[in-house]
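Hi W., the 2-oxoglutaric acid complex you wanted:
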Amino acid sequence: METMKLPLLNDTKKIDDATIQSFRKNGHTLIPGILSREEVDAYRNVINNAAYKYNTETRAMEDRDTYGKAFLQIMNLWEVDEDVRKFTLAKRFAKIAADLLGVEHVRIYHDQALYKEAGGGLTPWHQDQYYWPLDTPNTVTMWMPLIDITEEMGMLTFASGTHKTGMVDSVAISDESEKMLDEYVKQNGYPVTRPQHMNAGDATWHYGWTLHCAPGNASASTREVMTIIYFADGAKIMTPKNENQEADRQRWLCGTEPGSDAASTLNPVVV
Ligand SMILES: O=C(O)CCC(=O)C(=O)O
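Structure:
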């Protein structure tokens, strides 16, 4: 029944050239109003149901490490929930990803719901692509709040221009990455910026190499965010550089051999 009522997101929205240029220069951009209020409300319901159904975190906040305190992380809901599938495989989002990257076709890497609970901790500085055994820098994450959010709910925060360097340090998201990469950002004078406010259905977009972090959630509400990671079609799988990349190769690329196209059944072309 629910399925019948969901708005389909298979039309496309044109992104202006200034937004594309700013994304490529700074490594991130904010695009407002990708979903209407009605659309985001419908998918918020769907994503919330799936996220809480598949969440496996049960520890009290004080018993978690820094990564665990940062958010509930519920991954690849499109694989297990046919309504979330309509969101993650939506052409409206994928076409924006392709236009930002300047490519014809993009594939899905994975989706993840990132719910920063009330009182949840900071998200340490990190680079997403440290985790990904992909041979292209043409990767992008869409980060979309499902409710209106302010800075103090854990707004995503970027160090502009950091995507141009590739891997800064071989460090996973942790207290260590927070310390090392914070120093790196300060020492190199990268501008640090975040939106003050985002409406539900707006989204930020960042390259896989863009350094980013988020403050803790000082509000009384959970910061409900859904993310989708895309990469340019034609990318190949690299020999994993660390054990996290090997785990990703197994999980998100179905164990496909290094040197092959990154094109497993979990990586459909979406546009
Ligand atoms: O939601 C957050 O706090 C962090 C998000 C993030 O690191 C990402 O989407 O790449």
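The chain has one domain: 25-252.

W.
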